[in-house]
């Protein structure tokens, strides 16, 4: 049994090939470190099926399903039907994602990225699920697409801005519209001063923790394969920045994750 504060890793890719050889060991280390839930994030239809398969086999795992902007050229009407079927197949599917815009790599034409994102966002709205948004060098464009209205504090979050790396003003605007900010290993990097200031100043109720494993490992593991067991380093850095106990970070971000992924049966946690 873990002696660490209980944490939620809201974004990981343990279904990917990087974990094929030692998945059980990686999951075991996560549980020992205090990570009680890990959300596996789909990137294509097939990858989403893999994520759901892992989630159905392990109590600690959940899944989201979606088509990443890198794969927007693959998106079609049949994609929506496939995603809808996956959601209906299991309560382990707790969101739609990873969807969004990536104007850094531009692996898919931007008009196709926008079309795929809007269609999947509408699907999430139809199904009453939150979205996991990937946004790189496209925050202004994303804010133009998303609902403009302020989200009442009494309503569940609309989604999460995965690996948020925008400005302070953009962070505040996403929060105003009902989105949480996903914070991962980058907050431990020496040069991410602007991100650290955002994490220090926005309400703790607007943050969730994530690893993005196998990517974005925190210091001192930067450059190596990331895994959920390292999530505590992110929590500790946030606690340090905000000058609060790490237990408070763990408790509040876990509560935030439960508000976000509201399809989870909290009574079973």
From TrEMBL:
Residues that span the membrane, as ranges: none
- What domain of life? Bacteria
Name of the protein described by the UniProt record: Deoxyribonuclease YcfH
List the GO cellular component terms: cytosol
The residues listed in the UniProt record as binding a divalent metal cation 2, with positions renumbered to this chain, are: 134, 162
Q: Which residues bind a divalent metal cation 1?
A: 11, 13, 98, 212
Q: Which GO terms describe its molecular function?
A: DNA nuclease activity; hydrolase activity, acting on ester bonds; metal ion binding
Q: Which UniProt keywords apply?
A: Hydrolase, Metal-binding
